């Protein structure tokens, strides 16, 4: 049974101009499956509290990547104010459908924007488990400056293929012109499919996968939208 636990910030670094990765010291963390998330709760001195859900980015331990929402209640504090040694409350791990367990089946990961976070957890878990199942990450983002985990994704592990789809501005020499996700960017049936991103992106990607012949019941999706985070 999950419960609320207090964790302490052990380290942090910027992923992009608008996002920050937070690594927490959580000695009693029970472990998690890649794709699961936690709720983060902040409580003000007057007792008012706000909570938001964030995907775990790590194979082990508690690591979150938070995208800053300018008018949010939680994300501006996590990205701009939280300092090493500060404490927050978390509840989790949560979720049992959108998870990857080590197997030999090929995996197709399709993400948009901050939807890359749970996909990174899956890629890292594959590495940690020594699994040889081929992974293909298809990640859609607006421009090069929006790329999370750049050092890992631009030099991926053997067996992990990374396809970056820029929708507005592509770096010089990129083989694909800017544009939205299309069926030509995706693989046909035979892979376990995970799709994560904004609601519109997830729905469009799932439709494309079904059109390519994937079983609709086997496409695992996780979506997010404006929440005031």
TrEMBL record:
Q: One Pfam family of this protein, by short name?
A: NAD_binding_1
Give the domain of life.
Bacteria
Gene3D superfamilies (UniProt xref): Nucleotide-binding domain of ferredoxin-NADP reductase (FNR) module, Translation factors
The keyword Iron-sulfur is annotated on this UniProt entry: yes
SUPFAM superfamilies cross-referenced by the UniProt entry: Ferredoxin reductase-like, C-terminal NADP-linked domain (SSF52343), Riboflavin synthase domain-like (SSF63380)
Q: Where are the transmembrane segments?
A: none
Tell me its cofactors: FAD
Q: Which GO terms describe its molecular function?
A: 2 iron, 2 sulfur cluster binding; oxidoreductase activity
This chain's protein is named Ferredoxin-NADP reductase
């Amino acid at each position: 049974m999950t419960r609320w636990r207090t964790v302490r910030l052990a380290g942090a670094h910027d992923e992009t101009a608008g996002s920050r990765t937070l690594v927490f010291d959580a000695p009693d963390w029970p472990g998690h499956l890649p794709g699961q998330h936690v709720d983060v709760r902040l409580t003000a001195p007057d007792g008012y509290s706000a909570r938001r859900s964030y995907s775990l980015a790590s194979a082990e331990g508690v690591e979150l990547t938070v995208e800053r929402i300018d008018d949010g209640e939680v994300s501006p504090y996590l990205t701009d104010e939280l300092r090493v040694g500060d404490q927050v409350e978390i509840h989790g791990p949560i979720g049992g459908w959108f998870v990857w367990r080590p197997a030999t089946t090929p995996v197709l990961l399709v993400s948009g924007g901050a939807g890359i976070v749970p996909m990174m957890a899956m890629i890292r878990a594959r590495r940690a488990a020594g699994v040889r199942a081929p992974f293909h990450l298809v990640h859609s983002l607006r421009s090069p400056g929006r790329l999370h985990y750049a050092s890992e994704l631009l030099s991926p592990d053997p067996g992990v293929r990374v396809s970056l789809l820029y929708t507005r501005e592509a770096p010089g020499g990129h083989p694909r012109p800017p544009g939205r996700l299309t069926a030509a960017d995706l693989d046909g049936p035979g892979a376990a499919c995970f799709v994560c991103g904004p609601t519109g992106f997830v729905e469009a990607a799932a439709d494309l996968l079904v059109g390519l012949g994937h079983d609709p019941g086997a496409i695992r999706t996780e979506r997010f939208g404006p929440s005031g985070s």
